[in-house]
Amino acid sequence: MSTTSLKLPEDVKQLAAAAAQQHGVTLHAFMVEAIRAAAVAAERRAAFVADAQAARAEALESGKAFDADEVHAYLRARAQGQAVPRPKARTWRG
Question: Which InterPro entries match (predicted)?
Fold first, then answer.
């Protein structure tokens, strides 16, 4: 395991120390987990944005998309346990 020095403002250090104590872990363990959680969240966010950009490009290229009202009705019906057909993509360009 490599060593990294991290200089924290005193108020941040106190907040982290209090949170670590509440969770019953050391300050070091708390900081490692906080950094891990932030890094994983950043990766997930980047993947989400990449997926959204790919979906947008596909919609622009194909000229097809789903009607929001149909999608919402479909999701409501599925949430109520109903077996309903999936909405179909439709041409949205004139």
Answer: Ribbon_hlx_hlx
